[in-house]
Amino acid sequence: MGNVEPLPSPKPPLSPLQESRSAISLQTTAAAPSSSSVAAAAVPHGHESLSRYFDDPIQGEYDNDDLPPLYSEHAETDAADSAPVNPLIPRGGDQLVQPFGHDGGGTTAYYLDPRLDSDPSFLIDHIQRLAAVPPRPFVRLRGTHRERQRGRDKDRHGADQVVDFDIRIELTHLLYTDITRQQAWRGLVTAGNLEKVRRGTVFAERAPGFGGAAEEGVPGLEQWCHRFCASPAGLKCFTLERRVLGWDWDLLRRRLEALVRATNYRGHAVVSFPVRDARVDVYNDCRTNRWRLTGRIRFLFYATFLFLLTWPWLLLRTRRWETVAAEWHASQPTSVPGRRRYAAGMGEEQWYSLWATAIQRAMLERRDCELDRGDLERAQGETVMQVSNPKRVLAVSLANEANHLSRVIRDLSGSAPGPASTSLAGTTHHVAFETQYYKASVPVWLDLIASPAEWAESFLSDEASEVLAVLGGLVVVFALPAAGASGDELRLLIEHVGRVVNMGLGGWEWEGVRLAVGVGEDAADDWDELCAEAGLEFVQVGVGQQQQRGLNEFGERIGMARVKEALESNDWAQTDSPSLSDFGDFESGSDGHPEANNVDFDPETLDFGFDRADFEGLRRAIWSAGQRDSPAAETAGASTREAKADDVARDDDGASAEDTSLQGGPCVDEGDEAEVDGDDVLKLERMTRKLQAVRDAGAGMGEAQRKKMAARAVAEAMKEL
């Protein structure tokens, strides 16, 4: 028998890149070729008559039935379903033309092919395929600071930018409703007649006639592709823009900026949302466009400064079409106002809660990388500290408002407090707090106040010192009085609770949580100011909606969400010995190294988080106090000098008496001034400690509350001076 050539292996259909230009039809067809015709075309001539030979034709027919199925009949299907899905490669075929290049940041892809600027049908098909490729949004946090570098020349100094962390997280998966099937809410849109875009022009403009004729309508993708291919311009560019819609970037930016501030980072942090693959530029195929997109040629023009001549020429010479965009929706509005339906089922708040720990950990580790799911799993797998013997919370209210106190504790802990007797006074209720850092079951002591003055005196007595020592939080609950109603009893309650905070707990230097929860819907501006004067953070909660959620104009939580957030941010672990002040041993004087002590108390950098304008009134008060004290000092100095002069006048030597009187006076004045300066130093020391405590106490509060607390602290310091 002669050698029989083996059957040729099936080959996939050739892509347009492997065929000649003459073999590709640039006209759209009514129907795509069937798979059988493609398979027949794949078999070369001369092998059509080849088939399997059987000695027994009947047995051959049965053999076909008895043979096991080919693995390719099922394995290929199973492999296609179980294979990893790359959302950047859309189904339905690869791109017709490979990109000529990309920009440095991966934002724009450049295409050059003679078929794209000559055949509208080919360009339409190419744009539709590119529109199926999603944009790649990222979250990026970058922290930098500047370090002064001393050069070789001592008189010359420089500052270098140092990157502390650069973290990136991709959000592409949030654009898909089903990423395995690559289903998403996307669409291809064109610019309206009233939009100012480039319509085959150099500069952006509206449609001719300020919106175009009404009967013409808005041009679609086919019309813009035909106009681009028919344009006689020597340099032209057709742009496809990919947009990400339905995602609240401002909310996410505020959340991430607050996360950076929570780490006490003092550098310059920038939160940005870059989008890769956000733009496609299709240039007509010519030598000028190839040169402008070649990196080596561009570098040559930059090095020789020829770009100063070529850049204006290219800008005015190139006609651009920026009228087509692919919109990818991360969410869509629902029938309920204010609610949205997310494609991946995850909104901005859920995403932030999921990634906050991993982002904060990467910041503290000073990483420069792109976080993935492995970082997320490692952050979630960290052990959480269990606080065994936490501090206590004292929750109080007026005796006739026990129902509001019970509701707040119920909504905070999830269970209503059970009174030990007929009253809530003396009841202990446990509230469980669980964060990514610790777990604690905090005992809450409930107390009802019949007489605020007597209650304050009892807590300020020596017998109550042990009770105050174990407190980590103080919450006062009261009902907001209606408009026009008298609130004298409520004012007394807040004032006496403020006495306990300032005199018993240490005022601003106390590190515990101080909350005033006002239940009601009426205006609360006056009560907010009164609570700030007492050193309490005011939180308003509506009647019957203690689970109130939302954000204020500063992007901060309100209602019971803010109460829980403030309590969770506290350190509930008890220490055996009181912690030292941030000032160290400042009160005990210098330790022999004045240079080291002056570093922490540089008046140019010790701003405590307040604005410079807050200290302007304080500085004026100090100067005015010095001017008020100067007349008395001068009077005392003059009387002293007169007494000295009388004593010396009795001396026999007149000239000596005159010299003594002239020398004795200034000596006494200098002593008086020294005493005044010493008092000023003590006052400034107390003021410094108080402002430092105010800054630490307001670290976990909102922007509005911090400003009110700062104004209150400065007013107290001015009153003392």
Automatic annotation (TrEMBL):
Source superkingdom: Eukaryota
Ranges of biased composition (kind: Acidic residues): 669-679
Bias kind Polar residues: ranges: 18-29, 571-580
Compositionally biased intervals (Basic and acidic residues): 45-55, 641-653
Gene3D superfamilies per the UniProt record, alphabetical: 3.40.50.11960
Region (Disordered): 1-94, 569-602, 625-681
Signal peptide: none
Low complexity bias locations: 30-44
A matching Pfam family: Adaptin_binding
PANTHER family attached to this UniProt entry: EXPRESSED PROTEIN (PTHR37848), SUN DOMAIN-CONTAINING PROTEIN (PTHR37848:SF1)
Protein name as annotated: Alpha and gamma adaptin binding protein p34 domain-containing protein
Organism: Hirsutella rhossiliensis
